[in-house]
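Posting for a labmate who doesn't have an account.
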Amino acid sequence: MFSRFFFLSVLTISVAFVFDGAKAGAVNPDEQNAEQQVAPDSKDEAGTAAEEKAEDENAPAAQMRAAIKGLVENLKPEEMQHFSSIYSNYNMVNTVKTVRRDVTDAIKACGDNNPDMKVGLDSRFEIWGAAVEPVIKESDANINNMVFAQDYAKKEEFKNIFNLIDQTRDYTASKFEKVPVTTPEACNFLLGNMDETQSSMLSLLRAGLVSYPQSTSSPKENP
């Protein structure tokens, strides 16, 4: 887990530099605490009250936690491990997609405002995308396979949780306006860090692909 968030920190720093007043590529606190969310609650009363207050302000997060609790409360340890892996990987892949979107927006803005840099930016971004896109697709397929392979929950339950995760992320993102900074210095910084962000994203995605076997049991159709 530490290595994943180290890579996310690298991505955040590399991309946030070219945004004004934006938490570009920021990780939703709900995502950073994936294991804590699906593990038994050990918060004190004050912590629980604070969490409930926050949930009142963020209905998707409250609904997400309720859906997760309903799914995991009767799981066996190996099933809990499997679910945690699916949940963690789904958050990770979609965080990478958020960074990809931010980089795409920053590259376009830099090219539009610095015509002399556009060819170099577009050329490097094309290479960047060609390296990252196939691994994102592979990671998505891996998550789908893990959902298909399990028999402790209906696929509709996972679909609902994934949807609530996305709604929670969108809700958090809506609080921040992302405005690309298009000075030559910022755009050169972005271009100079394309190697680093590409490597970090690929490492993060590949870590997810090998973090847990697709299933510890044979695939079954859910009732």
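Reply:
Got it, the structure tokens are right above this. Confidence is low (pLDDT under 50) at residues 1-10, 21-43, 214-223.
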